[in-house]
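Anyone up for a design puzzle?
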């Protein structure tokens, strides 16, 4: 009497095509029996890619009795959020996806009139398996612009009396130094109150 013998088989696991020997499974089965399943050993940030020799028909040569299971890095979503004076503008949010553990180093500049870059957070961003953590935040704040106050006497500007200053974009200048002189009286002002714009040439109060 003869009966089928048992032969060894192995299951190898590959991550980005690199074999992880610590995860290798071994077993034995009867000659010509079939192995059509194996333990799933996916890891954080990866996804199943393919397998080889599944189903495996056990042969008399243990070296041929090998199942190979391949995993590759998965893609995960990330977002870039834009804040203006610490208020998020959801209409400007950018979204994308990238491979697990890859790095995002840059983002579109979305500065707007009258503002300047302040800071960013999570740059460079290393992609994790949790999209909620994959967030770059970009902050802009109001910029400062120059303004001046010109003084006129009988419609002739006296440059020696001109005052200059600077203030935040969209802030309001509603006062000025009184520079009346002997024999004159106040007539009128122009551009008072003055709302600061991004163009210093427009930021002029006339007295």
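Challenge accepted. My sequence:
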């Amino acid at each position: 009497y003869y009966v089928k013998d048992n032969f060894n088989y192995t299951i190898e696991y590959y991550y980005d095509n690199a074999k992880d020997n610590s995860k290798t499974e071994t077993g034995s089965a009867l000659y010509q029996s079939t192995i059509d399943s194996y333990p799933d050993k996916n890891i954080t940030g990866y996804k199943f890619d393919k397998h080889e020799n599944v189903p495996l028909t056990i042969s008399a040569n243990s070296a041929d009795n090998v199942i190979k299971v391949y995993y590759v890095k998965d893609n995960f979503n990330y977002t870039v959020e834009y804040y203006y004076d610490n208020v998020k503008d959801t209409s400007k949010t950018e979204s994308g996806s990238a491979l697990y553990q890859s790095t995002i180093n840059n983002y579109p500049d979305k500065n707007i009139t009258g503002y300047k870059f302040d800071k960013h957070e999570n740059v460079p961003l290393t992609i994790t398996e949790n999209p909620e953590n994959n967030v770059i935040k970009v902050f802009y704040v109001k910029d400062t612009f120059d303004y001046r106050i010109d003084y006129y006497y009988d419609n002739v500007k006296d440059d020696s009396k001109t005052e200059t200053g600077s203030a935040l974009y969209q802030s309001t200048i509603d006062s000025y130094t009184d520079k009346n002189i002997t024999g004159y009286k106040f007539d009128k002002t122009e551009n008072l109150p003055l709302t600061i714009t991004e163009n210093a040439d427009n930021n002029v109060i006339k007295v």
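A detail worth pointing out: The radius of gyration is 36 Å.
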